[in-house]
Amino acid sequence: MDFMKQVDNLNFQCPNCMIPLKKNDSSFVCRGCLKEAQIIRSVPRIDFGAFLMSESDFDQEKNTLAYSFYSILYGPLALLNLIAVWRGSIGKQLVHYQNSLELSKGDILDTAIGDGSLSALVYNKFRKKNEENKNRFCIGLDISPDMLRKAEVQFAPVVRKSLRFLLLRADAKALPFSDRCFNQVFCYGGLHSIPAPEKVLKEFFRALRPGGFFAGSVLLTPRGWLGKKLAGKYLEWGTLSNDFSFGDVEKLFISSGFTDLLLEKNGETLLIRAKKP
What pLDDT is attached to residue 63? Predict the structure, then answer.
């Protein structure tokens, strides 16, 4: 199937009005609020920036500003923090990510992909695994335009080699999809960075089909005086929005309706899989 025809088949809805969007040549339009999501075919990317909530949200504004600066050196800084502050293994995280892809079926929604450095590495390996994976349709979502510009560069070689990957600028707290669209939703390294994670999980649960699964990772409160001091600074600057304990994460997923929760420690990070019943 032609790539853009697959895009046409996605069940986009207005995240504010909750009604289906109408497609024209260059955008998806809401007939309620008349806002448009621009289609950039050359990348390919769809930008739902016009649909982002307009009312002032201090935490979200701080987070967006922080990530516009953080995006400059995101890859090496994120890796350094994972290893030195949260004592995690990048190899273990990559294996969990790769295994989640192998378990997946149908279209994949991958959220908070950042600059795409980790995702592009995993998806490129997934593409090479067998010929059928080249026809899988994958959506990489992030709210930061600065991060997505870097992700475009990271994913260009993957897209050129036939993997059908669409970049999407949107808010994970208000996904632009109708209910029960995906068999799997991923979020590796995003839940600790997004304000109001309970809203995010509610959206993930809504977007999943019954029997579908979530997979991802989250930073926990680091050990030691220095780790806690740095985490406090990241919360203050906005590059970190949530300070989770193991129990916090468990309660968050259970209260959101997920079952069959599998939690695996990776240093002071948590690797997660959970099912929508």
Answer: 66
